[in-house]
Amino acid sequence: MRVGPDSAVAIGWKPVWDARMTRSGAPPDAPASSEDLAGADDRVLVAAFLHGRREAFDLIVERHRRVVYQLCYRFVGNHEDASDLAQDVFVRAFKGLGSFKGNSSFSTWIYRIGVNTCLNRVAVKRPATESIDASPRADDRAVDPLHAVMRDERALVVRRAIEKLPPKQRATLVLRVYQELSHEEIARVLGSSVGAVKANFFHALGNLKRLLQSS
Amino acid sequence: MTSHLSNDQLVDATEGTLAAGAADHLEQCEACRARVTELRALLTDVNLSSRVPEPSPLFWDHLSRRVREATAAETVPQPFAWWHGLWRPLVAFGAVAAAVALVVLVRHGQPTVHQSATATSVVADAAAEPALQDDPSVDVVTAVVGDLSFDELRSADLVPSRATVDQAVSQLTEDQKRELMRLVREELGGPE
After folding, report:
1. What is the C-alpha to C-alpha distance for residues A105 and B146, in angstroms, rounded to an integer?
2. Which of B48, B60, B79 sits opposite A155 (nearest CB)?
3. What total of structural domains would you count in chain B?
4. Range of the structural domain that residue B19 is part of
5. Same structural domain for residues B110 and B169?
């Protein structure tokens, strides 16, 4: 694992993320202050954290909390469960960072934890009973009220149908459409091939059509 | 291109990344175009259902604080290191070492041990014992310690503890104890 030099140069210190860091346990030539860490890329933050700089993990959380929360929300459909899940994802990341090898980007790695955490949660908990009143609304000022209600109702039906998809198809659809990841990125997150991701995506849409017709 | 688009190609067409040859087919094939239109309509539905309401601005710091509190008691994990993959071979080596120690113990408690104190003869005799004849682990032990002397085994910390030896000796028959004493005297160069 090697940190790209650009970000490190930009913040004025020399990265030493090499064999010495992983094999001898020697402390890294890390930024002296949290202000220095703030400009560092994810791998530099991971390296600093693994050598005892807890504030580096705070910055990792700050950087990824919105995406992680949104991912969780799209699996559970309500704020309370999504915030609990997001916390769980970061706690797992904290404990597991020692095994982060840097073969994929940190974003991919945390997405993987997020998807696994969400799929585990939805497997043991029945779907939330989200009412039309609680569903998220777009800016309705430019839309007539009847149209807005119909649109929100349709959105709720679609979300309910997505919740009934098999786990991998659901994860693929969420990552592709909601999180806007490429098929290649999804393959890395789910640990499968691009072909399998496309097949899952296709079958997810097919199943979704069937579920929407039956509802 | 005469056959209809595959599932992968339908996905590509829906996302506007279809290869040129397949795009020519799509232009001419009404059935494929209908499927692509249907998939796009579904994606539009999914897109419209995708909004996540923005939580309170205070929520983000609250989330960070919750994570900090939840991990406060945790120790920072150690970096992944190349030697982490070595525990399996080490366990295997430990198992072999334990087997070696066991055989050494058994052989030193048997009356058929000969003058030579080398591990080679000890293990060779062990292999000749009827009780151990069918035991495949004897072959493994023979291969591992075949060229090691007892002193080498001891320096490698592969010999049993004193307490284990004492216990083994206490279980010997009277004949075996006499033979053991004879071997000890012989080894020490004392009188028979």
Report:
1. 50
2. B48
3. 2
4. 7-48
5. yes
Per the domain annotation, does A99 fall within a domain? yes
- B170 membership: H or E segment, kind and range: helix B162-170
**Same domain flag for B92 and B141:** yes
Residue A197 lies in a domain: no
Q: What is the pLDDT of residues A151-188, one digit of tens each?
A: 888 888 998 899 899 999 999 999 999 999 999 999 99
With an 8 Å Cβ cutoff, are B79 and A22 in contact? Answer: yes
pLDDT in tens, A72-110: 999 988 999 999 999 999 999 999 998 888 888 999 999
Mutate to test the interface with B, among A109, A179, A198 (most CBs of B within 10 A): A198
What 3 state SS string does A85-140 have? HHHHHHHHHHHHHHHCCCCCCHHHHHHHHHHHHHHHHHHHCCCCCCCCCCCCCCCH
- For B71-161, where are the E strands, in sequence order? none
| Helix and strand element counts for chain A (H, E) | 11, 0
What is the span of the domain harbouring residue A26?
1-128
Is A82 among the domain residues?
Answer: yes
Residues B114 and B180 in one domain: yes
Q: Which two tokens stand for residue B102?
A: 């066991």
Report A:50-109 residues touching B (Cβ under 8 A): 50-52, 54, 57-58, 61-62, 65-66, 69-70, 73-74, 79, 83, 86-87, 90-91, 94-101
To 10 degrees, the CA torsion angle through B162, B163, B165, B170?
A: 140
CB contact under 8 A, B67 and A61: yes
Hey, is A9 helix, strand or coil? helix
Structurally, how many domains does chain A consist of?
Answer: 1
Are B96 and B151 within one domain? yes
Report helix, strand or coil for B77.
Answer: coil
Contact A195 B8 (CB under 8 A): yes
Contact B64 A99 (CB under 8 A): no
Read off the CATH number of the domain in which A45 is found.
Answer: 1.10.1740.10
In a domain, A214, yes or no: no
Whether residues B98 and B22 fall in one domain: no
- Are B81 and A22 inside 8 Å of each other by CB? yes
- Give Cα separations from B160 to B132, B150, B165 (angstroms): 19, 12, 7
Is ipTM beyond 0.90?
Answer: no
Name the residue facing A198 among B11, B42, B82 (closest C-beta): B11
Which residues from chain A sit within 8 angstroms of residue B18, using beta carbons? none
Note the pTM of the prediction, 2 decimals. 0.62
